[in-house]
């Protein structure tokens, strides 16, 4: 993604956030960015986080469809058919089967 495309996306998200009364996007610091990985790998119970999408030190709720400003995991990421297709494509790309 080119820098101008990224800025256009951020502008769209910020417009949606403003319209919804939410704070605008800001980049996280390195510790803030690492916090969820550390939380999921060390602090949280494995059965709580295993196989789930996590953000901001918790298991994410399902995001609203069509709302680019909503947080959470998108429905397509939870679709078993998409997961199977992604797995097959990954095997094809690396030339191995798992």
What descriptive keywords fit this protein?
51% helix, mainly alpha, globular, two-stranded antiparallel sheet
Account of the 3D structure:
- The chain is mainly alpha-helical and 98 residues long.
- The protein has helices spanning 3-19, 30-43, 46-49, 80-94, and strands at residues 54-55, 58-59.
- It has a two-stranded antiparallel ribbon with strand order 1-2.
- A hairpin with a 2-residue loop joins β1 and β2 (58-59).
- The longest helix is centred in the first third of the chain and has 17 residues, at 3-19.
- The chain starts with a helix and ends with a helix.
Break the fold down into its secondary structure elements and pairings.
Blueprint (H helix, E strand, L loop, with lengths): L2 H17 L10 H14 L2 H4 L4 E2 L2 E2 L20 H15 L4
Antiparallel strand pairs: 1-2
Which shape, going by the Cα principal axes?
Answer: globular
Proportion of strand residues: under 5%
Low-confidence runs of at least 5 consecutive residues: none
From the alpha carbons, calculate the radius of gyration and give it in angstroms: 17 Å
Percentage of residues assigned to helices: 40-55%
The N- to C-terminal Cα distance equals 31 Å
């Amino acid at each position: 993604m080119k820098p101008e495309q990224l800025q256009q996306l951020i502008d769209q998200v910020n417009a949606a956030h403003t319209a919804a009364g939410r704070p605008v996007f800001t980049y996280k610091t390195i510790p803030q960015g690492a916090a969820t990985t550390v939380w999921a790998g060390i602090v949280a119970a494995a059965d709580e986080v295993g196989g789930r999408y996590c953000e901001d030190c918790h298991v994410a709720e399902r995001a609203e469809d069509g709302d680019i400003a909503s947080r959470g995991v998108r429905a397509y990421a939870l679709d078993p058919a998409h997961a199977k297709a992604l797995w097959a494509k990954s095997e094809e790309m690396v030339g191995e089967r798992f």
